[in-house]
């Protein structure tokens, strides 16, 4: 299953009895259309429960995802049965990212989802830190035009 949507709340991080950490996300996906009869714009929002068992992705969710963050999620659809407090059997369908299967990609711009520059994390993810090295120097060497390179004889 592939989802692209926005977090409805901050990720919930829990620790299992085994010591493994799990992240729970609520993701909203929306579709909009124009009603043919009235011409009115309509919108429908679906909410999806996402469970992440991959420890590295749990760390990413904990450190960088906030309510409103836009994410791309790729996982498997699983339905489980449970009994609520009143003893009624219920079913829950979730998108599950297993330890070694699944994908989480953060979409959107810098500080998207209410994150601020002083939110910690050692500055990771800020545009000035990408690349992790010294600022790029201007290219040295001859300043030839690109078209001078295109004069070779390629047989196709």
Instruction: Tell me the series of helices and strands, N- to C-terminal.
Output: EEEEHEEEE
Q: What is the distance, rounded to the nearest whole angstrom, between the alpha carbons of the first and last residues?
A: 42 Å
Shape descriptor reads globular
Q: Beta-sheet strand percentage?
A: 35-45%
- Uncertain runs are 115-143
- Main beta sheet strand tally, sense and closure: 8 strands, mixed
Helix amount: under 10%
User: How many DSSP E strands?
Assistant: 8
Structural class: mainly beta
Determine Rg (CA atoms, Å): 23 Å
Mean pLDDT figure: 80
Number of helices: 1
Give a structural overview:
The longest helix has 10 residues, at 55-64. Strands 1, 2, 3, 4, 5, 6, 7 and 8 form an 8-stranded mixed β-sheet that branches. A hairpin with a 5-residue loop joins strand 2 (12-15) and strand 3. The protein is built from 1 helix and 8 strands, in the order ββββαββββ. Residues 115-143 have low confidence and may be disordered. The protein is mainly β. It has one helix at residues 55-64; strands at 2-7, 12-15, 21-34, 41-52, 70-74, 76-83, 89-97, 103-107. The chain starts with a strand and ends in a 49-residue tail after the last strand.
């Amino acid at each position: 299953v592939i989802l692209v949507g926005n977090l409805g709340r901050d990720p919930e991080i829990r620790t299992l009895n085994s010591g493994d950490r799990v992240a729970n996300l609520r993701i909203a996906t929306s579709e909009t259309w124009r009603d043919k009869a009235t011409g009115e714009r309509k919108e429908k929002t679906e909410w999806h429960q996402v469970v992440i068992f991959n420890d590295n992705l749990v760390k990413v969710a904990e450190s960088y995802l906030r309510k409103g963050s836009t994410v791309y999620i790729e996982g498997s659809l699983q339905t489980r049965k449970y009994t609520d407090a009143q003893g009624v059997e219920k079913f829950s369908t979730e998108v599950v990212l297993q330890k070694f299967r699944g994908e989480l990609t953060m979409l959107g711009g810098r500080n998207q989802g209410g994150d601020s520059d002083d939110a910690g994390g050692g500055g990771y993810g800020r545009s000035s830190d990408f690349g992790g090295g010294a600022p790029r120097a201007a290219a040295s060497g001859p300043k030839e035009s690109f078209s001078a390179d295109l004069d070779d004889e390629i047989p196709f």
